[in-house]
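S1.2 Input.
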Amino acid sequence: MNTAITRETALKLLLKYNQNNFHIQHALTVEAVMKRFAEKLGYGDESEQWGIVGLLHDVDFEKYPEQHCIKAPELLKEVNASDELIHAVCSHGYEITVDIKPEHEMEKVLFACDELTGLIGAAALMRPSKSVSDMELKSLKKKFKDKRFAAGCSREIITKGAEMLAWELDRLLSDTLNAMQDSETEIKENYKEITGEEL
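S1.3 Output.
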């Protein structure tokens, strides 16, 4: 996987098209989670590239929600992003807005964990600690089964993502939760550096 751009370039592009703090936080969260998965799955030397894909996966969503994953190639070409990066970013909209199928393991991970990071983040806000640090898998599974909780986070996509990876759903839930726990401090620091605000 070669993104052909640096994180600095990726971040500038993200901030050009995203001013909403929630969207910035989500991008930083998915970036950090993707890097942890790269390391866990044996792609450690590509973790920066996996992170860049996570950082930019929703680059077009804030300004062009109706063209999500359709407008992205045009925006990514502004920074001479590689075809691989464009495919990876757009593939997480598979069968939602585009017909670009996740092929590489990295693309399948992005498809699987994008919605899930949102669900875990929403569950964390319900906790007294407002943190994922003390969240247990059984608590997350309970929130996952409650369709009324964070209803905008598609359980169908999360389940489909686990199937794409040939993983048990519990593995996806557990590994994504662990990745968010491991990177919580990093995400908060990056968020403060960009927005000037505390998470």
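S1.4 Remarks. Residues 7-187 form one domain.
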